[in-house]
Specification:
Length: 573
Protein backbone atom coordinates (compact mmCIF):
# COMPACT_ATOMS: atom_id res chain seq x y z
CA UNK A 1 0.00 0.00 0.00
CA UNK A 2 1.42 3.36 -1.03
CA UNK A 3 1.95 5.81 1.85
CA UNK A 4 -0.04 9.01 1.49
CA UNK A 5 1.77 12.25 2.29
CA UNK A 6 0.06 15.55 2.99
CA UNK A 7 -0.20 18.42 0.53
CA UNK A 8 2.42 20.40 2.44
CA UNK A 9 5.08 17.86 1.49
CA UNK A 10 4.20 18.22 -2.21
CA UNK A 11 4.33 22.00 -1.85
CA UNK A 12 7.81 21.85 -0.28
CA UNK A 13 9.08 19.46 -2.96
CA UNK A 14 7.87 21.73 -5.75
CA UNK A 15 9.47 24.74 -4.08
CA UNK A 16 12.74 22.82 -3.65
CA UNK A 17 13.00 21.79 -7.31
CA UNK A 18 11.86 25.14 -8.73
CA UNK A 19 14.15 26.22 -11.59
CA UNK A 20 16.02 22.90 -11.61
CA UNK A 21 16.31 20.59 -14.62
CA UNK A 22 13.07 18.96 -15.71
CA UNK A 23 14.05 15.45 -14.63
CA UNK A 24 13.88 16.59 -11.00
CA UNK A 25 10.09 16.43 -11.33
CA UNK A 26 10.56 12.64 -10.88
CA UNK A 27 10.95 13.36 -7.17
CA UNK A 28 7.27 14.22 -6.74
CA UNK A 29 5.94 10.78 -7.79
CA UNK A 30 3.73 9.41 -5.02
CA UNK A 31 0.39 9.96 -3.30
CA UNK A 32 -0.74 13.12 -1.51
CA UNK A 33 -3.74 14.22 0.51
CA UNK A 34 -5.14 17.36 -1.12
CA UNK A 35 -8.26 18.63 0.64
CA UNK A 36 -10.58 15.58 0.78
CA UNK A 37 -8.94 14.08 -2.30
CA UNK A 38 -5.98 11.78 -2.76
CA UNK A 39 -3.75 12.83 -5.65
CA UNK A 40 -1.78 9.96 -7.15
CA UNK A 41 1.18 11.00 -9.32
CA UNK A 42 1.77 7.67 -11.02
CA UNK A 43 4.18 8.55 -13.82
CA UNK A 44 6.19 11.71 -14.34
CA UNK A 45 7.26 12.71 -17.83
CA UNK A 46 10.99 13.10 -18.37
CA UNK A 47 10.79 16.11 -20.66
CA UNK A 48 8.30 18.97 -21.22
CA UNK A 49 7.87 17.81 -24.82
CA UNK A 50 7.30 14.12 -23.92
CA UNK A 51 3.96 12.45 -23.29
CA UNK A 52 2.42 14.17 -20.27
CA UNK A 53 2.48 12.79 -16.74
CA UNK A 54 -0.19 10.33 -15.58
CA UNK A 55 -2.17 11.13 -12.45
CA UNK A 56 -5.35 10.21 -10.60
CA UNK A 57 -7.64 12.16 -8.30
CA UNK A 58 -9.66 10.05 -5.86
CA UNK A 59 -12.48 11.03 -3.51
CA UNK A 60 -13.84 8.67 -0.83
CA UNK A 61 -17.27 7.29 -1.66
CA UNK A 62 -18.88 8.67 1.49
CA UNK A 63 -17.69 12.17 0.57
CA UNK A 64 -18.75 11.86 -3.09
CA UNK A 65 -22.15 10.59 -1.85
CA UNK A 66 -23.61 9.43 -5.15
CA UNK A 67 -26.75 7.36 -4.50
CA UNK A 68 -26.15 3.65 -5.08
CA UNK A 69 -29.10 3.48 -7.45
CA UNK A 70 -27.12 5.54 -9.97
CA UNK A 71 -24.53 2.77 -10.37
CA UNK A 72 -26.32 -0.36 -9.19
CA UNK A 73 -25.63 -2.27 -12.42
CA UNK A 74 -22.96 -2.16 -15.11
CA UNK A 75 -24.91 0.00 -17.56
CA UNK A 76 -25.82 2.58 -14.94
CA UNK A 77 -22.26 2.67 -13.65
CA UNK A 78 -20.87 3.25 -17.16
CA UNK A 79 -23.37 6.08 -17.66
CA UNK A 80 -22.52 7.74 -14.34
CA UNK A 81 -18.79 7.48 -15.05
CA UNK A 82 -19.41 9.02 -18.47
CA UNK A 83 -21.37 11.90 -16.92
CA UNK A 84 -18.62 12.65 -14.38
CA UNK A 85 -15.96 12.51 -17.09
CA UNK A 86 -17.79 15.14 -19.14
CA UNK A 87 -18.22 17.46 -16.17
CA UNK A 88 -14.58 17.06 -15.12
CA UNK A 89 -13.46 17.73 -18.70
CA UNK A 90 -15.42 20.99 -18.82
CA UNK A 91 -14.09 21.98 -15.41
CA UNK A 92 -10.49 21.44 -16.55
CA UNK A 93 -11.13 23.69 -19.54
CA UNK A 94 -12.20 26.45 -17.18
CA UNK A 95 -9.32 26.18 -14.71
CA UNK A 96 -6.56 25.87 -17.33
CA UNK A 97 -7.77 28.64 -19.64
CA UNK A 98 -4.94 30.93 -20.68
CA UNK A 99 -2.12 28.87 -19.13
CA UNK A 100 1.20 29.00 -21.05
CA UNK A 101 4.58 27.24 -21.01
CA UNK A 102 6.98 25.15 -23.06
CA UNK A 103 5.80 21.94 -24.71
CA UNK A 104 2.83 20.51 -22.83
CA UNK A 105 3.28 22.80 -19.82
CA UNK A 106 0.10 23.52 -17.93
CA UNK A 107 -1.92 20.83 -19.69
CA UNK A 108 -4.63 19.11 -17.67
CA UNK A 109 -6.67 16.71 -19.80
CA UNK A 110 -8.86 13.63 -19.64
CA UNK A 111 -9.93 11.15 -22.28
CA UNK A 112 -12.49 13.45 -23.90
CA UNK A 113 -15.69 11.65 -24.96
CA UNK A 114 -17.81 12.16 -28.06
CA UNK A 115 -21.55 11.67 -28.56
CA UNK A 116 -21.50 8.01 -27.52
CA UNK A 117 -21.61 6.73 -23.95
CA UNK A 118 -18.77 4.21 -23.96
CA UNK A 119 -17.28 2.11 -21.21
CA UNK A 120 -13.99 3.84 -20.41
CA UNK A 121 -11.11 3.63 -17.97
CA UNK A 122 -10.95 7.41 -17.35
CA UNK A 123 -13.38 7.43 -14.41
CA UNK A 124 -14.06 4.70 -11.85
CA UNK A 125 -17.07 4.70 -9.53
CA UNK A 126 -17.29 2.20 -6.65
CA UNK A 127 -18.89 2.16 -3.21
CA UNK A 128 -15.47 3.02 -1.75
CA UNK A 129 -14.35 5.86 -4.00
CA UNK A 130 -14.80 7.92 -7.14
CA UNK A 131 -11.63 8.34 -9.19
CA UNK A 132 -10.76 10.32 -12.30
CA UNK A 133 -7.63 9.54 -14.32
CA UNK A 134 -5.99 12.31 -16.29
CA UNK A 135 -2.74 13.59 -17.73
CA UNK A 136 -0.82 16.68 -16.69
CA UNK A 137 1.88 18.66 -18.45
CA UNK A 138 4.09 19.75 -15.57
CA UNK A 139 5.07 23.41 -16.13
CA UNK A 140 8.48 24.42 -17.42
CA UNK A 141 10.28 27.26 -19.13
CA UNK A 142 12.47 25.58 -21.66
CA UNK A 143 13.63 22.58 -19.63
CA UNK A 144 13.65 24.39 -16.29
CA UNK A 145 10.98 23.51 -13.73
CA UNK A 146 8.36 26.12 -12.87
CA UNK A 147 7.67 24.73 -9.40
CA UNK A 148 5.34 27.45 -8.20
CA UNK A 149 3.16 27.18 -11.32
CA UNK A 150 3.03 23.42 -10.76
CA UNK A 151 1.95 24.13 -7.19
CA UNK A 152 -0.91 26.29 -8.41
CA UNK A 153 -1.92 23.71 -11.02
CA UNK A 154 -1.88 20.66 -8.72
CA UNK A 155 -3.02 22.21 -5.45
CA UNK A 156 -5.49 24.88 -6.63
CA UNK A 157 -6.75 24.21 -10.17
CA UNK A 158 -7.01 20.45 -9.93
CA UNK A 159 -8.98 20.35 -6.64
CA UNK A 160 -11.31 23.01 -8.09
CA UNK A 161 -12.12 20.74 -11.01
CA UNK A 162 -12.54 17.81 -8.63
CA UNK A 163 -14.98 19.75 -6.46
CA UNK A 164 -17.04 20.66 -9.53
CA UNK A 165 -17.28 17.08 -10.78
CA UNK A 166 -16.88 14.47 -8.06
CA UNK A 167 -19.34 15.64 -5.38
CA UNK A 168 -22.97 14.64 -5.93
CA UNK A 169 -24.16 17.79 -4.19
CA UNK A 170 -22.61 19.89 -7.00
CA UNK A 171 -24.98 18.40 -9.61
CA UNK A 172 -28.63 18.78 -10.45
CA UNK A 173 -30.02 15.34 -9.47
CA UNK A 174 -32.47 15.38 -12.37
CA UNK A 175 -29.65 15.96 -14.89
CA UNK A 176 -27.58 13.08 -13.47
CA UNK A 177 -30.59 10.77 -13.39
CA UNK A 178 -31.54 11.64 -16.97
CA UNK A 179 -28.03 10.83 -18.22
CA UNK A 180 -28.07 7.44 -16.48
CA UNK A 181 -31.62 6.60 -17.56
CA UNK A 182 -30.94 7.58 -21.17
CA UNK A 183 -28.17 5.01 -21.36
CA UNK A 184 -30.23 2.35 -19.58
CA UNK A 185 -33.28 2.97 -21.81
CA UNK A 186 -31.12 2.50 -24.88
CA UNK A 187 -29.78 -0.81 -23.58
CA UNK A 188 -33.27 -2.06 -22.76
CA UNK A 189 -34.66 -0.88 -26.11
CA UNK A 190 -31.93 -2.82 -27.92
CA UNK A 191 -32.93 -5.93 -25.96
CA UNK A 192 -36.50 -5.47 -27.18
CA UNK A 193 -35.46 -5.99 -30.80
CA UNK A 194 -35.88 -9.76 -30.59
CA UNK A 195 -39.44 -9.43 -29.33
CA UNK A 196 -40.14 -6.93 -32.12
CA UNK A 197 -38.62 -9.34 -34.70
CA UNK A 198 -36.47 -6.43 -35.80
CA UNK A 199 -32.82 -5.57 -36.32
CA UNK A 200 -33.24 -1.86 -35.55
CA UNK A 201 -35.60 0.72 -34.05
CA UNK A 202 -35.70 4.45 -34.86
CA UNK A 203 -37.77 6.52 -32.47
CA UNK A 204 -40.26 9.12 -33.64
CA UNK A 205 -38.90 12.67 -33.31
CA UNK A 206 -35.29 11.44 -33.50
CA UNK A 207 -32.85 13.89 -35.11
CA UNK A 208 -30.66 11.86 -37.46
CA UNK A 209 -28.73 14.48 -39.51
CA UNK A 210 -25.39 15.66 -38.14
CA UNK A 211 -24.18 19.24 -38.13
CA UNK A 212 -21.55 18.66 -40.82
CA UNK A 213 -19.35 16.01 -42.38
CA UNK A 214 -16.72 16.61 -39.70
CA UNK A 215 -19.04 17.08 -36.73
CA UNK A 216 -21.04 14.36 -35.01
CA UNK A 217 -23.17 16.92 -33.18
CA UNK A 218 -26.86 16.98 -34.14
CA UNK A 219 -28.14 19.39 -36.72
CA UNK A 220 -29.98 22.15 -34.87
CA UNK A 221 -33.70 21.39 -34.67
CA UNK A 222 -34.67 24.43 -36.71
CA UNK A 223 -32.84 22.92 -39.70
CA UNK A 224 -33.63 19.23 -39.16
CA UNK A 225 -36.72 17.19 -40.00
CA UNK A 226 -37.71 15.07 -36.97
CA UNK A 227 -38.11 11.39 -37.79
CA UNK A 228 -41.69 10.16 -38.24
CA UNK A 229 -42.54 6.47 -38.65
CA UNK A 230 -44.82 5.10 -41.34
CA UNK A 231 -47.90 3.54 -39.71
CA UNK A 232 -47.19 0.04 -41.05
CA UNK A 233 -43.78 -0.11 -39.35
CA UNK A 234 -44.60 1.86 -36.20
CA UNK A 235 -44.31 0.02 -32.89
CA UNK A 236 -44.58 1.20 -29.27
CA UNK A 237 -42.27 0.26 -26.43
CA UNK A 238 -42.40 1.03 -22.71
CA UNK A 239 -39.10 2.17 -21.16
CA UNK A 240 -38.44 2.85 -17.46
CA UNK A 241 -36.99 6.32 -18.03
CA UNK A 242 -38.67 7.66 -21.16
CA UNK A 243 -42.00 5.90 -20.65
CA UNK A 244 -43.99 4.85 -23.73
CA UNK A 245 -42.26 5.69 -27.02
CA UNK A 246 -43.08 4.92 -30.63
CA UNK A 247 -40.84 4.42 -33.61
CA UNK A 248 -40.09 2.55 -36.81
CA UNK A 249 -38.72 -0.96 -36.80
CA UNK A 250 -36.42 -2.39 -39.45
CA UNK A 251 -37.79 -5.94 -39.65
CA UNK A 252 -35.60 -9.00 -39.91
CA UNK A 253 -34.90 -10.16 -43.45
CA UNK A 254 -33.89 -8.07 -46.43
CA UNK A 255 -34.71 -4.36 -46.16
CA UNK A 256 -34.08 -1.80 -48.89
CA UNK A 257 -33.81 1.92 -48.20
CA UNK A 258 -34.52 3.72 -51.47
CA UNK A 259 -35.31 7.25 -52.66
CA UNK A 260 -33.87 10.14 -54.58
CA UNK A 261 -30.51 11.71 -53.95
CA UNK A 262 -30.23 13.91 -50.82
CA UNK A 263 -33.51 12.63 -49.35
CA UNK A 264 -31.91 11.00 -46.28
CA UNK A 265 -31.10 7.40 -47.28
CA UNK A 266 -27.48 7.37 -46.19
CA UNK A 267 -28.30 9.50 -43.15
CA UNK A 268 -30.69 6.80 -41.97
CA UNK A 269 -28.13 4.05 -42.60
CA UNK A 270 -25.50 6.06 -40.75
CA UNK A 271 -27.80 6.30 -37.75
CA UNK A 272 -28.31 2.54 -37.90
CA UNK A 273 -24.58 1.77 -37.99
CA UNK A 274 -24.12 4.01 -34.93
CA UNK A 275 -27.15 2.37 -33.30
CA UNK A 276 -24.84 -0.26 -31.83
CA UNK A 277 -23.85 2.47 -29.33
CA UNK A 278 -25.76 4.40 -26.67
CA UNK A 279 -25.85 8.19 -27.05
CA UNK A 280 -25.91 11.15 -24.68
CA UNK A 281 -29.08 13.10 -23.91
CA UNK A 282 -29.71 15.70 -26.59
CA UNK A 283 -27.83 13.83 -29.32
CA UNK A 284 -31.03 13.14 -31.26
CA UNK A 285 -30.24 9.43 -31.62
CA UNK A 286 -30.75 8.44 -27.98
CA UNK A 287 -33.48 5.97 -28.94
CA UNK A 288 -32.05 4.75 -32.25
CA UNK A 289 -30.74 1.24 -31.66
CA UNK A 290 -29.49 -1.60 -33.84
CA UNK A 291 -28.66 -5.25 -33.39
CA UNK A 292 -25.42 -5.20 -31.36
CA UNK A 293 -23.72 -7.44 -33.94
CA UNK A 294 -24.62 -5.24 -36.95
CA UNK A 295 -21.64 -4.66 -39.26
CA UNK A 296 -21.21 -2.00 -41.94
CA UNK A 297 -19.89 -3.63 -45.12
CA UNK A 298 -18.10 -1.75 -47.89
CA UNK A 299 -15.58 -2.18 -50.69
CA UNK A 300 -12.03 -1.47 -49.56
CA UNK A 301 -9.59 -1.49 -52.43
CA UNK A 302 -6.04 -2.33 -51.43
CA UNK A 303 -6.66 -3.96 -48.05
CA UNK A 304 -4.94 -7.21 -47.16
CA UNK A 305 -6.94 -10.43 -46.81
CA UNK A 306 -5.64 -13.47 -44.90
CA UNK A 307 -7.00 -16.88 -45.78
CA UNK A 308 -10.66 -15.86 -45.99
CA UNK A 309 -13.22 -18.12 -47.69
CA UNK A 310 -14.79 -15.81 -50.25
CA UNK A 311 -15.95 -18.71 -52.47
CA UNK A 312 -19.66 -18.07 -51.74
CA UNK A 313 -19.19 -14.81 -53.69
CA UNK A 314 -16.07 -15.26 -55.83
CA UNK A 315 -15.49 -18.55 -57.66
CA UNK A 316 -12.52 -19.78 -59.66
CA UNK A 317 -10.32 -16.90 -60.75
CA UNK A 318 -8.56 -16.93 -64.15
CA UNK A 319 -5.12 -17.12 -62.51
CA UNK A 320 -6.08 -20.17 -60.47
CA UNK A 321 -6.17 -18.39 -57.08
CA UNK A 322 -7.92 -20.48 -54.41
CA UNK A 323 -10.86 -18.34 -53.26
CA UNK A 324 -11.72 -20.79 -50.46
CA UNK A 325 -8.44 -19.71 -48.84
CA UNK A 326 -8.15 -16.30 -50.42
CA UNK A 327 -5.08 -14.29 -49.54
CA UNK A 328 -3.87 -11.06 -51.07
CA UNK A 329 -1.99 -7.95 -49.94
CA UNK A 330 -4.11 -5.76 -52.24
CA UNK A 331 -7.73 -6.82 -52.60
CA UNK A 332 -9.96 -5.36 -55.31
CA UNK A 333 -13.28 -3.71 -54.57
CA UNK A 334 -15.29 -6.90 -55.10
CA UNK A 335 -12.89 -9.28 -53.31
CA UNK A 336 -12.55 -6.89 -50.37
CA UNK A 337 -16.32 -6.62 -50.02
CA UNK A 338 -16.70 -10.39 -50.22
CA UNK A 339 -13.99 -10.78 -47.57
CA UNK A 340 -15.70 -8.22 -45.34
CA UNK A 341 -18.95 -10.19 -45.41
CA UNK A 342 -17.22 -13.53 -44.78
CA UNK A 343 -15.26 -12.05 -41.86
CA UNK A 344 -18.44 -10.55 -40.36
CA UNK A 345 -20.26 -13.89 -40.64
CA UNK A 346 -17.30 -15.64 -39.03
CA UNK A 347 -17.68 -13.33 -36.02
CA UNK A 348 -21.42 -14.01 -35.77
CA UNK A 349 -22.89 -10.86 -37.33
CA UNK A 350 -26.68 -11.05 -37.53
CA UNK A 351 -27.16 -7.90 -39.59
CA UNK A 352 -25.23 -6.47 -42.54
CA UNK A 353 -25.48 -2.77 -43.42
CA UNK A 354 -24.61 -1.93 -47.04
CA UNK A 355 -24.61 1.37 -48.93
CA UNK A 356 -24.60 1.15 -52.72
CA UNK A 357 -22.39 4.26 -52.87
CA UNK A 358 -19.50 2.53 -51.06
CA UNK A 359 -19.91 -0.87 -52.71
CA UNK A 360 -18.32 -2.48 -55.74
CA UNK A 361 -20.92 -2.34 -58.52
CA UNK A 362 -20.01 -5.73 -59.98
CA UNK A 363 -20.29 -7.30 -56.53
CA UNK A 364 -23.80 -5.97 -55.90
CA UNK A 365 -25.64 -7.04 -59.07
CA UNK A 366 -25.23 -8.50 -62.58
CA UNK A 367 -28.28 -7.61 -64.63
CA UNK A 368 -29.88 -9.73 -67.32
CA UNK A 369 -28.23 -7.95 -70.21
CA UNK A 370 -24.78 -8.51 -68.72
CA UNK A 371 -25.66 -12.14 -68.02
CA UNK A 372 -26.48 -12.58 -71.72
CA UNK A 373 -23.33 -10.87 -72.93
CA UNK A 374 -20.82 -12.33 -70.42
CA UNK A 375 -21.59 -16.01 -69.92
CA UNK A 376 -21.59 -17.42 -66.40
CA UNK A 377 -18.52 -19.57 -67.03
CA UNK A 378 -16.58 -16.36 -67.74
CA UNK A 379 -17.75 -14.53 -64.61
CA UNK A 380 -16.37 -15.71 -61.22
CA UNK A 381 -18.50 -13.32 -59.14
CA UNK A 382 -21.78 -14.45 -57.62
CA UNK A 383 -23.37 -11.06 -56.91
CA UNK A 384 -24.76 -10.19 -53.51
CA UNK A 385 -28.28 -10.02 -54.94
CA UNK A 386 -28.15 -13.82 -55.35
CA UNK A 387 -26.92 -14.46 -51.80
CA UNK A 388 -28.82 -11.91 -49.71
CA UNK A 389 -32.02 -13.95 -49.32
CA UNK A 390 -30.01 -17.12 -48.77
CA UNK A 391 -28.18 -15.40 -45.93
CA UNK A 392 -31.51 -14.52 -44.33
CA UNK A 393 -33.11 -17.92 -44.87
CA UNK A 394 -30.13 -20.24 -44.26
CA UNK A 395 -27.99 -18.28 -41.79
CA UNK A 396 -30.53 -15.99 -40.10
CA UNK A 397 -28.53 -12.92 -41.20
CA UNK A 398 -30.54 -9.82 -42.12
CA UNK A 399 -29.38 -7.15 -44.54
CA UNK A 400 -30.23 -3.45 -44.77
CA UNK A 401 -29.24 -1.92 -48.11
CA UNK A 402 -29.29 1.68 -49.32
CA UNK A 403 -30.02 1.63 -53.04
CA UNK A 404 -30.59 4.36 -55.60
CA UNK A 405 -29.82 2.68 -58.88
CA UNK A 406 -30.73 -1.01 -58.86
CA UNK A 407 -34.39 -1.98 -58.88
CA UNK A 408 -33.37 -5.63 -59.41
CA UNK A 409 -33.25 -5.93 -55.61
CA UNK A 410 -37.05 -5.48 -55.46
CA UNK A 411 -37.27 -9.20 -56.32
CA UNK A 412 -35.42 -10.25 -53.14
CA UNK A 413 -36.64 -7.63 -50.64
CA UNK A 414 -38.93 -8.30 -47.68
CA UNK A 415 -39.34 -4.60 -46.86
CA UNK A 416 -38.80 -1.47 -48.94
CA UNK A 417 -38.59 1.92 -47.23
CA UNK A 418 -38.51 5.08 -49.33
CA UNK A 419 -36.96 8.22 -47.88
CA UNK A 420 -38.97 11.14 -49.24
CA UNK A 421 -37.76 14.60 -48.12
CA UNK A 422 -36.20 12.98 -45.03
CA UNK A 423 -39.37 11.09 -44.06
CA UNK A 424 -39.74 7.32 -44.44
CA UNK A 425 -42.58 5.65 -46.36
CA UNK A 426 -43.27 1.93 -46.49
CA UNK A 427 -43.44 1.24 -50.24
CA UNK A 428 -43.07 -2.54 -50.07
CA UNK A 429 -46.36 -3.15 -51.87
CA UNK A 430 -45.55 -0.65 -54.62
CA UNK A 431 -42.09 -2.18 -55.12
CA UNK A 432 -43.61 -5.65 -55.52
CA UNK A 433 -46.05 -4.35 -58.10
CA UNK A 434 -43.17 -2.80 -60.04
CA UNK A 435 -41.26 -6.10 -59.84
CA UNK A 436 -44.28 -8.07 -61.06
CA UNK A 437 -45.10 -5.62 -63.85
CA UNK A 438 -41.52 -5.21 -65.08
CA UNK A 439 -39.69 -8.52 -64.58
CA UNK A 440 -35.95 -8.32 -65.08
CA UNK A 441 -35.47 -11.80 -66.45
CA UNK A 442 -32.37 -12.29 -64.28
CA UNK A 443 -31.14 -15.84 -63.78
CA UNK A 444 -30.15 -16.88 -60.26
CA UNK A 445 -26.42 -17.49 -60.04
CA UNK A 446 -24.41 -19.42 -57.46
CA UNK A 447 -26.84 -22.18 -56.48
CA UNK A 448 -29.95 -22.39 -54.31
CA UNK A 449 -28.36 -22.35 -50.84
CA UNK A 450 -25.69 -20.41 -48.99
CA UNK A 451 -22.56 -22.59 -48.81
CA UNK A 452 -21.94 -21.98 -45.11
CA UNK A 453 -19.49 -20.10 -42.88
CA UNK A 454 -15.81 -20.92 -42.51
CA UNK A 455 -13.87 -20.37 -39.27
CA UNK A 456 -10.15 -19.61 -39.15
CA UNK A 457 -7.51 -20.14 -36.47
CA UNK A 458 -4.98 -17.30 -36.19
CA UNK A 459 -1.32 -18.30 -35.96
CA UNK A 460 -0.01 -16.45 -32.87
CA UNK A 461 3.48 -16.36 -34.37
CA UNK A 462 2.16 -14.14 -37.16
CA UNK A 463 0.78 -11.58 -34.71
CA UNK A 464 4.08 -10.02 -33.69
CA UNK A 465 4.00 -6.62 -31.94
CA UNK A 466 7.79 -6.35 -31.71
CA UNK A 467 9.90 -3.81 -33.49
CA UNK A 468 13.66 -4.06 -33.11
CA UNK A 469 13.11 -6.52 -30.27
CA UNK A 470 10.70 -4.35 -28.27
CA UNK A 471 6.91 -4.49 -28.15
CA UNK A 472 5.66 -1.49 -30.08
CA UNK A 473 1.90 -0.92 -30.21
CA UNK A 474 0.62 2.61 -30.63
CA UNK A 475 -2.64 4.05 -31.94
CA UNK A 476 -2.33 7.11 -34.15
CA UNK A 477 -5.72 8.77 -34.06
CA UNK A 478 -8.85 6.86 -34.90
CA UNK A 479 -7.73 4.95 -37.96
CA UNK A 480 -4.16 3.67 -37.59
CA UNK A 481 -2.43 1.26 -35.23
CA UNK A 482 1.32 0.88 -35.35
CA UNK A 483 1.72 -2.81 -34.56
CA UNK A 484 5.34 -3.90 -34.41
CA UNK A 485 6.87 -3.16 -37.79
CA UNK A 486 3.66 -2.48 -39.67
CA UNK A 487 0.68 -0.15 -39.64
CA UNK A 488 -2.88 -1.45 -39.50
CA UNK A 489 -5.17 0.79 -41.56
CA UNK A 490 -8.65 1.05 -40.01
CA UNK A 491 -9.82 4.05 -42.01
CA UNK A 492 -12.58 1.99 -43.65
CA UNK A 493 -13.75 0.35 -40.40
CA UNK A 494 -16.60 2.80 -40.00
CA UNK A 495 -18.00 1.65 -36.65
CA UNK A 496 -14.94 2.64 -34.66
CA UNK A 497 -15.94 6.03 -33.24
CA UNK A 498 -13.26 7.01 -30.71
CA UNK A 499 -9.43 7.03 -30.77
CA UNK A 500 -9.49 5.46 -27.31
CA UNK A 501 -11.22 2.44 -28.82
CA UNK A 502 -8.38 2.21 -31.33
CA UNK A 503 -5.86 2.29 -28.47
CA UNK A 504 -7.73 -0.55 -26.80
CA UNK A 505 -7.89 -2.56 -30.02
CA UNK A 506 -4.10 -2.50 -30.37
CA UNK A 507 -3.51 -3.79 -26.84
CA UNK A 508 -6.31 -6.36 -27.12
CA UNK A 509 -4.50 -7.86 -30.13
CA UNK A 510 -1.44 -8.38 -27.93
CA UNK A 511 -3.52 -9.68 -25.02
CA UNK A 512 -5.41 -12.11 -27.26
CA UNK A 513 -2.26 -13.92 -28.39
CA UNK A 514 -2.44 -16.26 -25.40
CA UNK A 515 -5.78 -17.60 -26.66
CA UNK A 516 -4.80 -18.01 -30.30
CA UNK A 517 -4.66 -21.34 -32.16
CA UNK A 518 -8.39 -21.50 -31.46
CA UNK A 519 -11.05 -20.32 -33.93
CA UNK A 520 -10.97 -16.52 -34.10
CA UNK A 521 -14.48 -16.11 -32.75
CA UNK A 522 -13.58 -18.24 -29.72
CA UNK A 523 -10.34 -16.31 -29.19
CA UNK A 524 -12.19 -13.02 -28.95
CA UNK A 525 -15.00 -14.54 -26.87
CA UNK A 526 -12.34 -15.46 -24.29
CA UNK A 527 -11.07 -11.88 -24.35
CA UNK A 528 -14.63 -10.59 -23.90
CA UNK A 529 -15.09 -12.84 -20.86
CA UNK A 530 -11.89 -11.46 -19.31
CA UNK A 531 -13.01 -7.88 -19.89
CA UNK A 532 -16.34 -8.62 -18.24
CA UNK A 533 -14.61 -10.17 -15.23
CA UNK A 534 -11.51 -7.98 -14.83
CA UNK A 535 -12.47 -4.77 -16.59
CA UNK A 536 -10.91 -3.00 -19.53
CA UNK A 537 -7.76 -2.36 -17.49
CA UNK A 538 -6.83 -6.03 -17.92
CA UNK A 539 -5.38 -5.37 -21.37
CA UNK A 540 -2.98 -2.64 -20.21
CA UNK A 541 0.71 -3.59 -20.46
CA UNK A 542 1.76 -0.77 -18.12
CA UNK A 543 1.65 -0.11 -14.41
CA UNK A 544 -0.22 2.92 -13.18
CA UNK A 545 -3.54 4.05 -14.47
CA UNK A 546 -4.70 3.08 -17.99
CA UNK A 547 -6.95 6.11 -18.28
CA UNK A 548 -7.25 6.29 -22.04
CA UNK A 549 -9.15 3.18 -23.14
CA UNK A 550 -12.70 3.02 -24.47
CA UNK A 551 -14.22 -0.38 -25.02
CA UNK A 552 -14.53 -1.57 -28.62
CA UNK A 553 -16.67 -4.40 -29.91
CA UNK A 554 -14.89 -7.64 -30.73
CA UNK A 555 -16.15 -7.06 -34.30
CA UNK A 556 -13.73 -4.15 -34.66
CA UNK A 557 -10.93 -6.06 -32.93
CA UNK A 558 -11.41 -8.82 -35.52
CA UNK A 559 -11.43 -6.20 -38.28
CA UNK A 560 -8.03 -4.94 -37.10
CA UNK A 561 -6.57 -8.44 -36.91
CA UNK A 562 -7.91 -9.22 -40.38
CA UNK A 563 -6.06 -6.17 -41.76
CA UNK A 564 -2.73 -7.17 -40.20
CA UNK A 565 -0.65 -7.97 -43.26
CA UNK A 566 1.50 -10.53 -41.46
CA UNK A 567 -1.52 -12.57 -40.30
CA UNK A 568 -1.47 -16.29 -41.08
CA UNK A 569 -4.41 -18.60 -40.44
CA UNK A 570 -5.56 -22.18 -40.74
CA UNK A 571 -9.22 -22.89 -41.34
CA UNK A 572 -12.16 -25.18 -40.66
CA UNK A 573 -15.71 -25.10 -41.95
Amino acid sequence: MRAIADAEKLKKELARIDNRGYKAYKDIAGAYRVEAFTLYIDHVQGDPFAAPSKMRLRLPGDRAAFPGALYENRHRRVALEDFLLRVFDRALDRVTEGRRGSGKSGLLAVDRPGQEILERTAVVVTDDFVEVRFVAGLPARGRKILGYQAMEMLLDDLPAAGRAALYYTEHDPDVVRRHVETKEDSVLLRRELDALEAVAFVADDAILPRRSGISDLPLVRSGAVPFASPDSLRRTVDLPGAGRISGMIIPRGVTLIVGGGYHGKSTLLRALDRGIYDHVPGDGRERVVSDPSAVKIRAEDGRSVAGVDISPFIGDLPDGTDTARFRTPTASGSTSQAAGISEALEMGAQCLLVDEDTSATNFMVRDRRMQLLVHRDREPITPFIDRVRQLSRDEGVSSVLVLGGSGDYFDVADTVIMMDTYRPRDVTGEARKVADTHPTGRVLEGGEAFPGVTHRRPDPGSVDPRRKGRVRVRARGLSTIQFGSEDIDLSMVEQLVDPSQTRAVGDILVYAKKYMERPLREVLARVEEDLEEKGLEAISPFRGHPGDYARPRMMEVAAALNRLRSLRVSRER
